[in-house]
Structure formats: structure tokens, C-alpha cells
């Protein structure tokens, strides 16, 4: 019985990798073996990036809250501590949004604590 190579699926598999490597530099977007390694590495970077994005946004929210609260003479850490003491359950995303888009409500929040 002759050997079956199934060139259709092999070509499809290779073309899929080359397509994913589109825009990569040099031989990383042309040569299959190099492109395969580059694509695998890019998947790793995207996985780590999805985790890192959460950290980056949290630090951004903290910076915004700090900037907003310092306008009224209170530091970020004291503001968050007083919020927890008063048992006000707002997360940092919401507080930063209030501090940026609604300064009047943020002033009332600072006066509460």
C-alpha cells in the first residue's frame, strides 16, 4: 500500500501558522519553523499580557484616586483607610471614575470620611 502524505492538511496547518505570523520581522513571518516558534512565543506574551493588564489598570485607578484626593488635602492611603472604617464598599474602579468624571460627588465622598 502506498504511503499517504495528506499534503492538503499539512499545507493548511503550515499556512495557518504563517498567517498568524503576519507582520513579524524578517524570517519570522516567512520560514515555517521560525514562524512556529515566534507564534508560540507570541501566544505566551499575550497570555501574560492579559494578566498584566489587570495590574496596570489597578495601579492607574490608584493614581487617579490619589490625585483626586490630594486636591482636598488627604493622601490615598488615609482616604482608603477611612472608607473602610466607615464601611463604605466602593471598589477602586468606581472611586477613580467618580474622581475623574464627577468631582462634586467625589468631594462629598471625601467629606463623608
What does this structure look like?
The chain is mainly α. It has a single domain, classed as c-terminal domain of poly(a) binding protein. 73% of the residues lie in helices and 0% in strands. Helix 1 (7-20) runs parallel beside helix 2 and helix 4 crosses helix 5 (103-112). The longest helix is centred in the middle third of the chain and has 39 residues, at 32-70. The protein is rod-shaped. The mean pLDDT is 94.
Give the arrangement of secondary structure elements.
Layout: H1 7-20, H2 32-70, H3 76-85, H4 92-101, H5 103-112
Mean pLDDT, all residues: 94
The major sheet is characterized as: none
Q: What is the ordering of alpha helices and beta strands?
A: HHHHH
Task: Supply Rg.
Answer: 26 Å
From the 3D structure, determine the CATH topology.
Answer: c-terminal domain of poly(a) binding protein
Please, how many domains?
1
**Can you say what the CATH homologous superfamily is?**
Ribosomal protein L20, C-terminal domain
Summing up helix and strand content along with how strands pair, one would put the structural category as mainly alpha
**CATH C-level name:** Mainly Alpha
Beta-strand portion reads under 5%
Quaternary state reads single chain
The separation of the N and C termini measures: 83 Å
Unreliable residue stretches: none
How large is the count of helical segments? 5
* Shape label: rod-shaped
Percentage of residues in helical conformation: over 70%
CATH architecture: Orthogonal Bundle
**What is the total tally of β strands?**
0
